[in-house]
Amino acid sequence: MEADPLLAVLALFFLLFTAGAFVPFTASVFAYARVEKRHRSAWAGLAQHTVHVDAGPYRGSVIVPARLDRAPALVRAAALGCFYWSWFCALTWVGVGVVGRELPVLAPVVVAGVAVALSLAWTGKRLLRRDTRVVSSGRRVAIGAGVHAACVVMLAVGLGGVDWGGPALVFAGVTVAVAALLVLAVRRNAWLFVHPRRDGAASPSLPVWLARMLARRAPSPCR
Questions:
Q1: Domain extents for the chain?
Q2: Nearest to 141 by CA among 127, 129, 123
Q3: Are 19 and 103 in contact, with CB atoms under 8 Å apart?
Q4: pTM (2 decimals)?
Q5: How far apart are CA 165 and CA 146, in angstroms?
Q6: Nearest Cα residue to 165 out of 20, 10, 3
Q7: C-alpha span between 99 and 11 (Å, rounded)
Q8: What are the C-alpha distances in Å from 153 to residues 99, 164, 165, 171?
Q9: pLDDT at 81 exceeding the cut of 80
Q10: What 3-state DSSP class applies to 202?
């Protein structure tokens, strides 16, 4: 009696994986394009890299050969991977949860899979927004995705043996690849996420609306 739900979930997994892997235009691609265009200004004007030139024993200078007009290619690739894989994982795990609702052992994995999918989508948005918190949260999301993929492989092998182990290994391999790309993008461009403002001013610690209100109420200095 348990073979029918297992076969149905396996068939659904293959169907969703095939559709998600080969459909060229998906909701994730449009979401990535929209978010990337909206937050492109957060990267414009940042120094891509600097070169220190020594002009003498007491003099030196810093030259900026090039400046960014958008997020670096590695950051954009990681964000696109997060958007795409989050869309695929959310669709897959919701479908698996609906079809395999008669198997209680799948419930924790499905819930964790949806949570990982939402975390990947939010991390991709943070990458494009140049959010400083992504430096630490991106690594945690990557570790969580890898641990979840390992749990999926162990559960699949335990339930269906080789028949389930093969698709689960493919799923885990893609998940680990996306997680590795995320970690690499954050590690190589960590200094850009904590780069000071382009005008050289310090970032305000108060919200903008509160800082403006206090500035208007502050008394003018005596001359």
A1: 3-43+70-193
A2: 123
A3: no
A4: 0.70
A5: 16
A6: 10
A7: 10
A8: 19, 8, 6, 9
A9: yes
A10: coil
